[in-house]
């Protein structure tokens, strides 16, 4: 039997069939579940839902005294029934919108999410630069949009951020790290509310940059090119700017403060080491570093995504090894955008992952090392192509007469998904 109840009447052992409110009003992915622990019960009671519908055939019913007290205030059965039907309809629509799809089908939605997110981030960061208080609630919907995109396809949003040049560095980095954090959190099987908070932490990691002196004019407009003593201040500035937001969880705040700390104690601002660094911060250190290695600075050259993974492997003492292993599983040993050399003598770029075999992704071949000429681009699913097309390693594209790596990556990516991106 379905029964509408107030949040205050929820108890352990009840089965939540539907939740009354939007997806943004609660931290749960599933719309129906048994309340088995005190933490989940508390999250429900503290949410912004208008109420819930419980199924008394699958869990505990409202106790008699509470039922009697609520009886006079209950709305007519017809209204409750309409509300239940509306919830059923909305849930089906939301479930359909989150069904897994291929990367080419998700890219259009991912681009729309990125465009919308950029506008919100721009307004929020501009307010910060003008000395106004940060409105975190204004950008929280971005996390939900990214989360939904990652649920539909784990690679599309991150790949788009990685392979398109027309993304301003600061906004691209925030969105990319947010998506990487969400994917990593899902790979680590963290609870839904923590997955959401990981995405929010990714968006806010470098918010402190907005409080650095605006007259510095760093090379290429990138504050990572500024004096390290000035650049390193962004973690404390970001942390302090967020302290007054009562809606932010402590793990998110600590991720902002600690994402440049390193396991061996060589990081900043406090030289923390090992278990003293929070889990979110250890995750953020990996996601932030990976995306940083993919971009140009005045002292470093942008790395191929697979080369970035290889370099991070050599950074002994920097990262939590177990979390780094999960990260590689989430992006692949050869992430989308990586240039690889095939056993067949072809040069190709990774354009999609293979969900069953992370070592043998989907690639787009476009050049022959044997002839030294470009060939007709064609897609190869390495997991089903046999030994001839296995990956020998990361390809060096210098000296081949090809466009610069970033432009070549964008050309291949957009031509591969020309109808979607």
SSE map:
Layout (H helix, E strand, L loop, with lengths): L1 E4 L9 E6 L12 E2 L3 H8 L5 E5 L8 H8 L5 H21 L5 H27 L6 H17 L3 H8 L5 H19 L4 H13 L23 H4 L2 H9 L7 H9 L20 H15 L11 H10 L6 H11 L7 E4 L3 E7 L9 E7 L4 E9 L9 E4 L10 H12 L5
Protein architecture, described:
This protein has 421 residues and is α+β, with helices and mostly antiparallel strands. The protein is 45% helix and 11% strand. Strand 7 and strand 8 form a beta hairpin. Helix 4 packs antiparallel against helix 5, helix 6 packs antiparallel against helix 7 and helix 8 packs parallel to helix 11. The radius of gyration is 24 Å and the shape is globular. 37% of the residues are buried. Pfam families: DUF3391, HD_5. This is DUF3391 domain-containing protein. It comes from Erythrobacter fulvus.
Low-confidence stretches: 71-80, 86-96
Assigned CATH class of the largest domain: Mainly Alpha
pLDDT averaged residue by residue: 85
Total count of helical runs of at least 4 residues: 15
Within CATH, the superfamily of the largest domain carries the name Hypothetical protein af1432
From the 3D structure, determine the CATH topology of the largest domain: Hypothetical protein af1432
Number of domains: 3
Major sheet attributes = 5 strands, antiparallel
| Global structural class | alpha+beta
* Gap from first CA to last CA: 47 Å
Number of E strands: 9
What is the CATH architecture assignment of the largest domain?
Answer: Orthogonal Bundle
Shape, per Cα inertia axes: globular
- Strands of the widest sheet, in order across it, are 8-7-6-5-9
Helix content: 40-55%
H and E string? EEEHEHHHHHHHHHHHHHEEEEEH
Provide the gyration radius in Å.
Answer: 24 Å
């Amino acid at each position: 039997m379905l029964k509408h109840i107030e949040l205050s009447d929820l108890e352990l052992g009840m089965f939540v069939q539907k939740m009354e409110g939007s997806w943004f009003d609660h931290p749960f992915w599933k719309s129906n579940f048994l309340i088995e622990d005190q933490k989940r019960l508390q999250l429900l009671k503290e949410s912004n839902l208008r109420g819930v519908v419980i199924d008394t055939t699958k869990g505990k019913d409202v106790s008699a005294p509470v039922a009697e007290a609520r009886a006079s205030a209950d709305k007519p059965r017809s209204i409750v029934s309409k509300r239940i039907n509306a919830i059923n309809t909305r849930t089906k629509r939301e479930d359909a919108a989150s069904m897994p799809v291929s990367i080419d089908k998700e890219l259009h939605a991912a681009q729309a999410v990125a465009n919308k997110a950029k506008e919100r981030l721009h307004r929020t960061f501009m307010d910060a630069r003008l000395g106004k208080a940060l409105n975190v609630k204004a950008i929280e919907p971005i996390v939900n949009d990214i989360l939904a995109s990652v649920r539909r396809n784990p690679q599309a949003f991150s790949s788009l951020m990685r392979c398109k040049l027309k993304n301003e560095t600061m906004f691209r980095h925030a969105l990319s790290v947010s998506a990487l954090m969400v994917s990593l959190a899902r790979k680590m099987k963290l609870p839904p509310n923590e997955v959401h908070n990981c995405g929010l932490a990714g968006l806010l990691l470098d918010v402190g940059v907005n409080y650095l002196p605006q007259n510095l004019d760093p090379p290429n407009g990138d504050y990572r090119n500024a004096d390290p003593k000035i650049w390193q201040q962004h973690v404390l500035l970001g942390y302090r700017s967020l302290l007054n937001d009562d809606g932010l969880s402590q793990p998110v705040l600590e991720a902002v403060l600690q994402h440049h700390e390193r396991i061996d104690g060589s990081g900043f601002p406090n030289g923390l080491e090992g278990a003293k660094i929070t889990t979110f911060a250890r995750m953020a250190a990996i996601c932030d570093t990976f995306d940083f290695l993919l971009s140009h600075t005045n002292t470093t050259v942008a790395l191929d995504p697979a080369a970035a993974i290889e370099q991070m492997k050599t950074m002994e003492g920097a990262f939590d090894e177990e979390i780094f292993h999960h990260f590689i599983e989430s992006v692949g040993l050869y992430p989308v955008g990586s240039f690889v050399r095939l056993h067949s003598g072809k040069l190709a770029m990774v354009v999609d992952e293979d969900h069953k075999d992370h070592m043998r992704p989907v690639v787009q071949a476009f050049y022959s090392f044997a002839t030294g000429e470009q060939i007709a681009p064609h897609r190869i699913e390495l997991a089903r192509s046999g030994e001839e097309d296995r990956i020998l390693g990361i390809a060096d594209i210098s000296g081949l007469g090809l466009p610069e790596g970033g432009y070549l990556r964008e050309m291949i990516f957009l031509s591969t998904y020309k109808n979607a991106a």
